[in-house]
## 1
Amino acid sequence: MDNNSLFQKFVAFTTSVHQITSEISKDVKSESLTPLQYKILEYIAVSQPVTLSEISDCMHMSMPNTSRELKKLGEKQLCDKITDPADRRKQGITLSAAGEAMMNEAFQHIAIQFAERMGSVTDEERKEIERALDLLQQKVFY
Amino acid sequence: MDNNSLFQKFVAFTTSVHQITSEISKDVKSESLTPLQYKILEYIAVSQPVTLSEISDCMHMSMPNTSRELKKLGEKQLCDKITDPADRRKQGITLSAAGEAMMNEAFQHIAIQFAERMGSVTDEERKEIERALDLLQQKVFY
DNA sequence: CGATTTACTTATCAAATGATAATTAAAGAG
DNA sequence: CTCTTTAATTATCATTTGATAAGTAAATCG
């Protein structure tokens, strides 16, 4: 059962990834944002412009709940909705300037934590790590 | 800024890991268990025996809330508490037989999903993947 | 055109989770 | 033996999140 030992490693690995990412982005959550709202902003940031339905699908939440949270984000001036001229039922959602600023700051903060963690890594190791990330992303986490 | 491109990869990678693990373990959640309760059981499963304080620390939840959830898990007969004879304030928490059974089934299910995903991977690739997992766990997600 | 479907909204309710204060019992310090 | 600290519990409340029913407006179908 070689496959089984690989699975063990997979489980241990994903557990570590969850733990480390949560640690790294622990105090990123701007007050005034719930965890869910932060995650939605994160998703918008990397996928914008995006529709409500897409958010609903990708984040596994119902349309009504998605609508509610997005309304709150809109009220907080963190994202903009633009009605799609080609299909006026759809709304293209993007980060507002304030939203971009907030997310930039958040990513900045995460980047610093990451840099600290990577601190004493040689160039050679850095390349190895990069190759390993590519490999796993391609063969396992696609 | 070579470090920056590595960071980009890191973010993309961790996002993928979260997405794939959530997909793989999507319908594992036994009804009658809340997500939090499932995560706690998962933690107990890999770290048992464990104290309440440890769960509280590692899962970033307050003692009262930890106590509440553990009480529920106890009522559901999924875990046992054994008072530490050396320090009778502490409780060693383990999975009950039923808890073990449930978690075995859950892991089994995840293992199958994983095997499907790994399906057409050669022995050589498998070894590369294993090395990549080891490397990243050691240098990044420690 | 009328009927149906799609994208989204509003309202409401229930459950899950987070936060705090107060309490108990055991252990450790002086 | 007191005093303090530690581990855990109980009770309570607020907030967050999930689920469902019903409604609106635009698009599409026939």
Note: Residues 51-53, 63-64, 66-68, 71, 87, 89-91 of chain B lie near DNA strand D (CB under 10 Å from a C1').
## 2
Amino acid sequence: MGRVGEEVWGIVDFALNDMYCLARDCARDEVARKFVEPALELMMLDKALEGKLDRREALLRFGEMYATAIAGDGYVGPREVELAVGGELGGGAALLRLATLHLLNELLPDGLRFGVHTYVKEGIYRIAAYGGDAARLMRLLAAAAPSAGGGYLSPKFEGFVGEARAEVRFGGMRLTPKGRVAADLTISEGDIDVKYNVYLREHDILLQFASTDRGRAELAARLLKLAGVGAEVERVGGGGVWRVRATTDMLAAGRKELRDAIAEVVRRAAEGGWVNSETADRWLEKLEKGRALREGWPKYNVQLTEGALVVRYRSTNPENIEREAKRLRDMGLEEGKHFAVRMPEGGKAGYVYILREGLERAAWLSVHGEGDQQELAAEFVDLILERAEEKGGAVYKKALEVVRRGREVGSLKLADVREAEVFVGGKKYVVTVLGGGAEFEEGESGRKLLRIKITAEIDGVRGEYTITFGRYGKDNKALGRAYARADAPGGREADAERFAALIKALTGKEPWVYRVGNKMVVECGGEHLDGFARYAELADAITSWLKIAE
DNA sequence: GGGGTGCCCTGTAAGGATAC
DNA sequence: GTATCCTTACAGGGCACCCC
């Protein structure tokens, strides 16, 4: 380092030998710390250069310390890493930082070295790496930055995971004394690596790293996270061993490099006849396809049972069931109406079961809901469709049908029906809707009625058509009735046919038309009401009426 | 036929124990 | 200190069955 080096060491001497003076004169810890940390880094790196300290250990510790400094006084952008050094004696501290980076580069292999720029703005020294230099620095920090509980201690480092290029390689395939397949798998980032053990067990794949050094175990967890697996450090029993483990599904959610390496172990084991071929095929399928687990969502079971769509989450843990029920309530769904809940009892699993109407409502909320409800519902519907798609064919078709129906509620305008061609009784009708609305009314018996009025032109005949819904019978079924008018052009029969054409154009389904005495009755059921609910002018009234008339 | 529920069976996660 | 095994609870797939 020549003359610069001498100056640097002069500052180090000053910082370390006169710490008492610094502490006394400056009377603030942060000033002392500003010098102590880079000075320690400098000494550590110098020792590593002289071969008195393990080089990789020094790189790792440097990375931890520098990341901590950036977490406090730095900035991390997509293509930039910057450390700010300000305050009293900032110039000297910045010089120290530069000296440590210089030594660090001497320790790094060619492909990982990086350059930095230093500038002063508003009295603060800034040490920044840009572009490729920043990318190389990020690789070091990504592996070394302190973390806990599956995340970095500073959110500034979360983005690194996407940028880092953890390499995965395997070797040392062997059979354990009991005949299980084991292999070594090494994950490395930059010049830092960790060796893990992979075991092909009877029912799962297990990747494991164990150590009595908690720091090494945390590094193992960080590198595994860079490979896309969020396993946490755990303490084995109450003893002094720390461990990081991940099994099949977690591994299958990892990055392609990791999945490929593990798949290679499985493939070779299958070729050697060391694992059951059916099990190996299942694992390979998972590893090759990748398993996109939605963060924060459990795995809902989506399937068809004799034509009905079953959407269900089951668990023996009451807290899990309650958590899902709460999530559905937060989404705007109502228990009993949109979903059913059965709490676990006697060791048996409980469940939340999404009723058909619930999935429809969630689909509606995913389009028409507001704020958090809309976001939650959209995420939920996506998740269910994704699960249905995995099952393929009929399951996906059915799920899509329910979701589409839900999304359609209130999505159309009556005036959208213009010159629609429909066939009733083999005859073609041309329907144009001019307007309409819906309102409640109380019938003579106190029954809550819903009156839907539509103005339309059918085959050139303009008219106002009214249909009145009520709930009838022991099932309390929704039923809508209208009577054809005798004074309409062509008389009752022609009016009934035009009415039927209008309802078919609006709902997609023909009503039932029958004669009672000399009257012509046009009758609609729940499916027609669902069809009417697709129109914004009618949707709110229909939803409210369905609620109050229950 | 579709909606909803119960239950069996298999695969996986989690945690501890044990062998080397 | 590390590698391997064991146990158990839980999750999830899928089918049978009931009800309307």
Note: The longest strand of chain A covers residues 427-442.
## 3
Amino acid sequence: MYDPTRLAALVAVAEAGSITRAASRLGYTAPALSQQLAKLEREAGAALLVRHHRGTRLTAAGELLAGRARRVLDEMDQARHELARLAGLSGGRLRVGTFVTAGIHLLPPVLTAFRRAHPDVELTVTDYEPPAGVTAVAAGDVDLALTHAYEPAAADPMPSGLFSETLLVEELVLVTALGQMLSEGSGPLPVAELAGRPLISSAPEHPPRRGVERALAEAGATPAVVCESPGYALVCALVSAGLGVAVVPEMVAEMSPAPLAVRRLEPAAFRRTISVVHRGDRNTAAATTLMALLRSGFGRASAA
Amino acid sequence: MYDPTRLAALVAVAEAGSITRAASRLGYTAPALSQQLAKLEREAGAALLVRHHRGTRLTAAGELLAGRARRVLDEMDQARHELARLAGLSGGRLRVGTFVTAGIHLLPPVLTAFRRAHPDVELTVTDYEPPAGVTAVAAGDVDLALTHAYEPAAADPMPSGLFSETLLVEELVLVTALGQMLSEGSGPLPVAELAGRPLISSAPEHPPRRGVERALAEAGATPAVVCESPGYALVCALVSAGLGVAVVPEMVAEMSPAPLAVRRLEPAAFRRTISVVHRGDRNTAAATTLMALLRSGFGRASAA
DNA sequence: GGTCTGCCAAAAGGAACACTTAATGTACGA
DNA sequence: TCGTACATTAAGTGTTCCTTTTGGCAGACC
């Protein structure tokens, strides 16, 4: 059972004439390819390459295996195309709406997987802050959209003909600058402890988070800075710089490029739900496929 | 690029009718196969399997991919056979002589690799304690033989028509029962410290180790038990039981099933060289191939 | 002759992957 | 209601693979 990646490496060397060139053409470093080819030679039980001082050629055995390799790679390519055609995806397009955070942290691996399986589907990603995503699906501007809803808050009803499926529920956690963690212990922090703390908040009248901001105000947190920017990049940067604390989704806290200290809150009253809005029976095949990937993809994300 | 192992799993499920049966037929557990198939489905971007309550069937997409998979696996099989034929190995045989320790610790992974590449070569492994291995190659009883030579000792000259290639040089180290390590420190132990220690030794007149035993006697070690058994399994067992200390090859000390404390000696005068004895130009193709595997295989063994 | 350049290989460290066992879920038949 | 058969989920462990760094080697060039 030869690893097709290694077979592709062999073919690439045959065509490029050197390991280094083949590696850069495939997007690897030269040592990586050298190791893989050495393993392939061991597995094949024969010398496949002749190392020249001006490149690398294939031996007779190498040419033979490269020939079979081309056929193997061809079969796999055909399989991919056939599967795409069977799924009715070939040549179609897929338009995804997403809010900023999901677009940064969640969507990329899923879209990568989709693209690998269906390279000829035209992909479009558009940024919509909720509830604009729902509107976009309703208007037919996108095939599906990722949205979020915060608790405590009232859930907006779905327009008729649209459906919402929950992908992930995550807690909101407290983030502070490193070394500024409030009080002792590592367990959940009572919300009351936020009283008097300078709070970096989203716009209080920003619909999705309205309930959260009000609850924080009731706990006695002191508004320090109000961020009007979509997403949490700015909030995290300000918190990391020591301007105050903030309550953000767990995923944001963990993936933040700025260093942050993270702490859960008690009681765990703050949550956000990430959902995908779609058209149900009227979904395109591409949309259905992406939704399947979203489901398993988010399963992995929550496990990590 | 579909992993051929996963493709084989899909074919196996198609033929077995259930994941559990396919798994046991392939030598895996059911969860392993289930996970691999789930990944294949994600990669393919389509549902391949229909989970019944009485087994698992393939969907149309699954059947399609399974068909391509059969062809891919076929190509790989053909490639293997062609490579074997090209190497002149098909239907041949390979007889290997080895001393006990190498047969236990070094040869198995190399033979496994050889067998995978050339399943139709008839393999024979025979146990020869040096210098009988050289004689066996000279007599044509085996195609090649692994032998060892200890230092200090005189190297026997090769009979004409035979050649010896060094594969590995390893130090001899001191082993004791756990908790009985002599003196302090973790650096190399001066040989003089062995004076008066009870020594588990190989037969003093056993040719390969004669020089080693004599040097240990000169250092003042007290013979406690003399082992006449080939290999070091018995020596290690006695040492581990606390009957005395011993000086054994590093590889033996590290791979011993009985728990042992290991310490290097100073000066590092004791070594053994593991070589392969062969016929040079008159080697069979199979022998040449195995020697290539031995070279890279021992490279890995020394790295581990 | 000495230096530079291009190419390949070895070593070490970190991230990802695949396997295992154990536990959970689900439909069917007695 | 229980027992069986099948599949999945979860958690832990070992291996694999890729990257960076380093070293060696042959020809080109000054």
Note: The domain at 170-271 of chain A is CATH 3.40.190.10 (D-Maltodextrin-Binding Protein; domain 2).
## 4
Amino acid sequence: MPFVRTELVVLCVAQGELQVLLSRRAEEPHAGKLGLPGGVLRIDEDATLEGAAQRVARERLGRELPNLHQLCAVGGAERDPRAPWALSVVYRSLVQPELAVTPGKRVQALEWRAVGGLADHGPLAFDHGELIDKAVEATRAQIEALDYPPGWVQEPFTLPELQAFSAAVLGRELDKVTFRRRVEATGQVEALQGEMRSGGAHRPAQLYRFAGC
Amino acid sequence: MPFVRTELVVLCVAQGELQVLLSRRAEEPHAGKLGLPGGVLRIDEDATLEGAAQRVARERLGRELPNLHQLCAVGGAERDPRAPWALSVVYRSLVQPELAVTPGKRVQALEWRAVGGLADHGPLAFDHGELIDKAVEATRAQIEALDYPPGWVQEPFTLPELQAFSAAVLGRELDKVTFRRRVEATGQVEALQGEMRSGGAHRPAQLYRFAGC
DNA sequence: TCAAAAGTGTTTGGGTTACACCCATGG
DNA sequence: CCATGGGTGTAACCCAAACACTTTTGA
């Protein structure tokens, strides 16, 4: 039977850009390179695949992950020199930028890196570059469809804030009018009557929260 | 390490309906029930996950499958009583209705079943019902986007034929004008000058083939 | 008073839908 | 000639994009 692992693609929006959580690998193979946090499946501890991913998150990042979606499985005989056959099940998660992650065992350091221009910092370990691309694509499709993962933006929020987050994920500007109309048409947000956010030298913004909370 | 298998969701259009290839299980667990064809990953024979799926297809169905797409991976401690932990990587494929499948080892019989009303024939083995639903959903999204798998329809074909196949996959009628315009706009089909299909008591239809063949 | 950002109304254009109509063939 | 299905033109409609404009605040 093959050597089975779980890899995590953890994304967030910070500094107006989509970022991915990477770790500097301490051990071979690919020691010194940046790679996705991951870990071996433990059939004595994990009840399900997603449970395994959450355990790996606890061990490596110090906490569980919200909005965990399975991305794909990759595997082959030549994938990992530590085993004759290696299989990885990859999960993605979109988290709040304020997520506190604490490096865990066998992780030298955790770093947020903007997904644009990742190639500038040298090659990533294994095929992790392609996995990140796939995760970004799936996440963008989700946000494009206004399918907001619960708990991603802290409530209450304003529509311009939601628009800015969405634009950061998508990597392109969004039209204000179109965005407002599309979001309001979905019916998933409701205005908080009388509550505003007065942030600067401009008109305060209406606060919203997701309906059904 | 877990027990790793590959399962195949093979779909085709026949009798104007989307059908799935199922096998009557000869052995426990779930003996006698209908289930997806599948097989165990062989790390000594298979170089990749997709290679494993193709080997399973050769052994169980007597041929390789075109348009093979990975659907998901499912796994857990309670998944299969034959092992303490079982993991399945699921693939889907859309094939021509004329595909000849010959039952292989450990498969009593292969049957095409319409995906509508599958529940009427008793429960399926494992979670194969849910896997079929996911495969149908993914296939419908692909056809909805006019992303036709190469070799799915035999060329040459007429646009009404392509429309009928698409409608069968999607499970709903399609507007003739809209369908023609959308297909022609993609530029992936080209008319065969002067070639027509005269099938009945009506005007013959223009024959097409996919561009870039 | 002004700059800046929130929020609204209007127009434009692309693409889908619906409908009417013509075309070509077999019976 | 007529029924049948292939193929085309036109108008209505929906939605997103672009633009102009008003509103409200802090400086």
Note: Helices of chain A lie at 49-61, 128-144, 159-170, 176-186.
